[in-house]
Structure formats: C-alpha cells, structure tokens
Request: fold
Amino acid sequence: MNVIQESLGQINHQPVFSFTLKNDLGLEVTVINYGCIITKIMAPDQNGQFENIVLGHDTLEEYMEDSSFLGAIVGRVAGRIQGGSFELDGKTYTLAQNNHPNHLHGGMNGFNKVVWDAEKLEDGVCFSYTSKDGEEGYPGNLAMKVIYKLTNENELSIQYEAQTDQKTPVTVTNHSYFNLSGDLRRDVLNHTLTLKSDKFLELDQTFIPTGHLADVKGTPFDFTSEGLIKTGAVSEHPQNVLVGNGYDHPFVLNENHEHEVILKDLESGRTLTVETDEPAVVVYSGNSLSSEGSFRGVPSRKYLGICLETQGFPDAIHQPHFPSIVLDEGQKYSSVTKYKFGLIER
Reply:
C-alpha cells in the first residue's frame, strides 16, 4: 500500500494537496483536501487495462468553478431541505435556497467548497473540518472527519464522524459520478443496476419527497433484479419524466452491508458493489449534467455518470416518519460506506 501526497496550490492562503492511494494490485484512488473530492479512480477492466472510472478534472480551478458537486463530500445535509428552512426546538433556521425554492447539499459554501485539514495515513487519508455555528445557517459547531481507506481487496471505505455542541441536522454523502466504461468512452445508459430496495421516495415538482414510500414493483424503479439505467431514461413514468428523464430518487435499502447496490458495465466487465449503514441511496443518473464544459477532454452531456449517494432520507427534518437526521449535543455521528471494485465473472 502506498499513499502519495502532492501539492496542488492554494485557496485563500490554505494549501491544497492531492493524495493518491495505491494498493498492491495497482488500483488507485486520488482525493484532494478541497471538498474531500475524489478526482480519479483507476480500476482494471476484464483485460487488465487500468482506466479512470469517475468524472473529474485535472486542475484545482476547474473544481472551484464546478457546480455539480463532482466527487465531493456534501453536507451538513445531503439532499434537499424544503423551502430552505427548518425548525428545531421551536427555533427557525434559514438556509440558502441554492436550488430554488429549496436548499441543496449544504448550501452555497457547503463541505464541497472548503479546504479541509489532512493527515496522511498508512492506508489512506483523514480529512477534518469544523463547521462553525451559523455556517450556511446551521446551528452548532460541528467537528467533522472524513476518512478514506483503500485495501488490497480493491475496497475503498469512506468513514464519516461528527460531533456537535448544539442540536443540528447532519447527513453526509460522497457525490462521485461513476462511469465504469473507462475514461468516459460511453455514457452509463447501458450500465446495469441491482438494488436491494422495495420502495423509493416519491418526489414533488421541486424534487422534495412527498412523504409517500412508493412500491418499486411493476415500475422502472424496480432494480431488485438487474436492470438497465436506460430504463428510466426512456420511461414515460411521471417520476422519471419529472427529474429530466432518468433517476434522481432516494431508494429505501432493505439491508445494510450485504451487497445492497451493484453497478455493472457489461462491455468493460467492471463492477462496483456499494455497502453502507445508511437507510437510503439516492440514484442520480446525471440527467441534469450540462452540455457545456468537459471532463478531461470529454464533452459533458446527460447520462455521462451515475451517482450512488448513500445517506439519510432527504428532507427528513420535515418528515417525522422518516429516520431522524438530528444530531444531539455530545452524540457521535458515525457512518461507513464501502465501494468494492471488481470484475464480472465470465
């Protein structure tokens, strides 16, 4: 196992570094301490050819200008909060409506837009950041840690830890866009997905959960058996059409740490298995990716990547029957998501 640290530059006089985690099998994961962004994952295909399997950029400036949360840690609260406000213990907190009329992924300068402290580990890197009381409108000083570790079994784990000195909502996720074809040679419509999920959260016109847990059976949201991402893109189901012809929906997980999410690209032979202790995964099929710009020379377009955002239920702060995302003073927030990179058995 090797961890290589390199300097990328500075943001507001704060040094920014990249950390490349490389295991004994040659798999590489590169992360930076700006936004805890995963910039590159080099994984082998069925012929042993190593290629990048996430959307990313080569320069720090491109990440600073990015508005797609590319590869980043998002929070304090991943997903949308209706109306950009919430109430806790009788007090109303007002947040940025950066996805009008709602609040999205922590606000204008959420976790994805700050420089984190970094500590190199033997098998990874630990990022830490204290979000001050009132930052982006949230209450309490929140001490946050994000730990990336890579194993020789081609498994990347992301561990989240946090503590607060005041009651506050917290649910954090990684927003990587995966594309298992390798170096973005194809879009993800012919990727297949398997999900251990019988229900998804129905969305309203502003992408806020209505509170209704809809059955996947008989719909394009049924991935209990392996299905194509393309299914949602061509579907006339109102929920698929609503989000731009595809998926941008939270799926309720039936199990945890039991191969609950499996993504495959049949042509390259690559697989990605995601396991988590979170109650949901938001599947976003890149429906809103801009047709402007590029990723390392590949023009941006719809469906070029797919996000698998393990997290608490979006807008849980307004939905009493959803699992709570409120962290109490002195309570420890802890969550682990693991990404196992493999190959289809032929």
